[in-house]
Amino acid sequence: MQAISIAASGMMAAADRLHASAQRVASADAQADRAQTLGDVDYVNERVQQIGAATDFKANAAVIRTADEMTGALLNLKV
After folding, report:
1. In a 10 Å sphere around its CB, with 0-12 CB exposed, 13-18 middle and 19+ buried, how is residue 62 labelled?
2. In angstroms, what is the C-alpha Rg of the chain?
3. pLDDT surpasses 60 at 37
4. Which pLDDT belongs to residue 22?
5. How many CB atoms are located within 10 Å of the residue 53 CB?
6. DSSP state of 1
7. Residue 35 and residue 9: Cα distance in Å, rounded?
């Protein structure tokens, strides 16, 4: 089913965005520890990116659940 593959791709993209944001924050924290200063990362923006990625992931997971339920209902009709 095409909806499942599209939603799976969306989940992977959301996971990649979340990972990239976490890496930027971790890298900035490591640099800040060494330099005894604050990093040059906008922590508020990074958190917004992380929340958005998590929301996108959940939405795509809901699409997969719905597609699975629809496929199950279709199979039940054919039996």
Report:
1. exposed
2. 19
3. no
4. 94
5. 20
6. -
7. 39
Which one, of 10, 16, 69, 66, lies nearest residue 77 by Cα?
69
* 21: pLDDT strictly greater than 90: yes
Q: For 40, phi and psi rounded to 5 degrees? A: -95, 25
φ, ψ at 36 (rounded to 5°): 60, 30
State the DSSP code for 36: T
Distance between CA atoms of residues 48 and 77, nearest Å: 43
Say what the alpha-carbon torsion angle 26, 16, 62, 64 is, to the nearest 10 degrees: -150
Say how far apart CA 73 and CA 77 lie, in whole Å. Answer: 6
Q: What distance in Å separates the CA atoms of residue 15 and residue 13, rounded to the nearest whole number?
A: 5
Helices (H), 1-79: 2-35, 43-78
